[in-house]
Design a protein that fits this description.
451 residues; alpha+beta; seven-stranded mixed β-sheet; five-stranded mixed β-sheet; 14 strands; 39% helix
Length: 451
């Protein structure tokens, strides 16, 4: 096995980016079974973080079998062959650590943090559920966690104010069968239909070492970490080669509108445009555009809708670039009893202005500084660094991507913002209005010409 090391000092200053050195030292190795290991030594505090990305999310599912990725986020805490339930939580808590997990369209993430001397336990627990989980899988465990996920869906979607917005927008934006056309949580019907064999096949396919990367960050020695990981993970066999779903770029021929009535107090409108994947060049300018539109109290739409016209109680915007596709979201909530119609021409006006004129130099610099500060704050916590290292590795193929990402943000010009505004968010879009029950008159109307 070969390993390479990037050893350098993290230095953050107020000097221009070109004059800064921003490096996070890592050691990267790959076991014969395909498991990628990334180690970052940070001896500032006696803590350690373990961050495991299984490269599977809801976007790897198939229509009719959605929700399996998120179901596994719960199943993986139900015990493994040498750490039966509830040993995972109890052993870790007794050692002073904690743990959690998350699922997205493209990956499922498991992570622990605690005192540095708890690292052998963390790695042993993760190895046991990666390599020896399947023998403990039973229909009873699947049924129990299936019910938990169904209840989570009820709480977060059906019984949550505005909770059906995501599912509705995805179905409007993407064609049937697109890997992002369903929410991460899956559908009730599909969760009910999943058999024990479906669940076992999903694990055997995606929860293999050659489909995972593990980051260990904190008060550790890289050589010692690699020795522990080889000891715990090396005998886990490789899984099958995975073919990832692909899909053509989404193009909307015209606006698509819908209105939902819900038990809410305030009307809210959601605008969504198809954009680009996370690793495409326009993803970063779109993220800056979102900040300029509605990133803080001085942004264009916050000023125009919340402070000047006082028509909205809230407005926010974000670019969500993922592995297969991306989306630009703009959301505005009306004042109590206020209609959404007056908000629409103001939104269209500000978008049109950016597309025609671009941002001011001050707006662009403020957006770049705010996003840079947010990125640099990740370096203050070892668990946040661990997650970022795994994200950079998964997206770009190398873990230390902090400086490269900052450079991409700093390279964006006002002309870039103008161009992506004109290209992506002036054309056809999905428009969803969610209004109080019985008050459909508050919904956003069909698009009108920009005044």
């Amino acid at each position: 096995m070969s390993a390479w090391r990037l050893a350098t000092l993290i230095l953050i200053s107020s000097a221009p980016l070109a004059a800064q050195t921003l490096r996070v030292p890592v050691t990267v190795d790959t076991l014969p079974n395909g498991l990628v290991v990334i180690v970052h030594e940070d001896h500032s505090t006696p803590i350690v973080a373990v961050n495991v990305w299984h490269h599977v999310g809801s976007g790897d599912e198939k229509a009719g079998r959605t929700g399996l990725a998120h179901l596994f986020e719960h199943l993986m805490f139900m015990g493994s062959q040498h750490a039966e339930y509830p040993a995972f939580d109890r052993l870790l808590e007794a050692a002073g650590g904690d743990n959690n997990a998350s699922t997205s369209e493209d990956q499922t993430n498991y992570y622990e943090s605690g005192p540095a001397n708890s690292l052998p336990l963390m790695l042993w627990l993760e190895a046991d559920r990666m390599g020896w989980f399947l023998p403990t899988m039973t229909a009873e465990k699947v049924d129990a966690q299936r019910d938990v996920v169904k209840n989570e869906r009820r709480q977060s979607y059906e019984n949550q104010p505005y909770g059906l917005s995501e599912e509705t927008i995805l179905a409007m934006l993407y064609p049937a069968g697109h890997p992002y056309s369903w929410p991460v949580v899956g559908s009730m019907t599909d969760l009910s239909a999943a058999s024990l064999e479906d669940v076992k096949h999903f694990f055997s396919t995606y929860y293999a070492p050659n489909n995972a990367s593990i980051v260990v960050a904190g008060d550790v020695n890289a050589a010692d970490v690699l020795k522990l990981i080889r000891q715990d993970f090396a005998e886990i066999p490789r899984g099958p080669t995975i073919t990832r779903p692909t899909a053509p770029a989404v193009v909307l021929a015209h606006d698509t509108t819908a209105v939902l009535e819900d038990h809410v107090e305030l009307a809210r409108v959601y605008y969504t445009w198809p954009t680009v994947r996370a690793n495409e060049a326009d993803d970063i300018p779109l993220r800056l555009l979102a900040y300029i539109l509605a990133g803080d109290k001085n942004s264009r739409l916050t000023q125009a809708l919340v402070y000047q016209s006082q028509l909205a109680s809230e407005v926010y915007s974000y670019e969500d670039g993922k592995r297969v596709a991306g989306e630009f979201h703009l959301v505005a909530t009306a004042k109590p009893d206020g209609p959404l119609a007056p908000l629409q021409p103001i939104i269209q006006r500000e978008v049109a202005r950016l597309a025609a004129e671009g941002p001011t130099a001050r707006e662009l610099t403020q957006a770049q500084n705010a996003i840079e500060a947010r990125l640099l704050r990740r370096l203050e916590r070892v668990d946040a660094k661990a997650d970022a290292l795994n994200r950079y590795y998964t997206r770009d193929g190398h873990p230390d991507g902090f400086a490269a990402e900052l450079a991409r943000y700093r390279a964006v010009t006002a002309a870039d913002i103008q161009r992506v505004a004109a290209k992506y968010i002036t054309g056809p879009r999905v428009v969803l209005s969610i209004v109080p029950t019985g008050k459909t008159a508050l919904a956003a109307p069909a698009r009108r010409a920009t005044p």
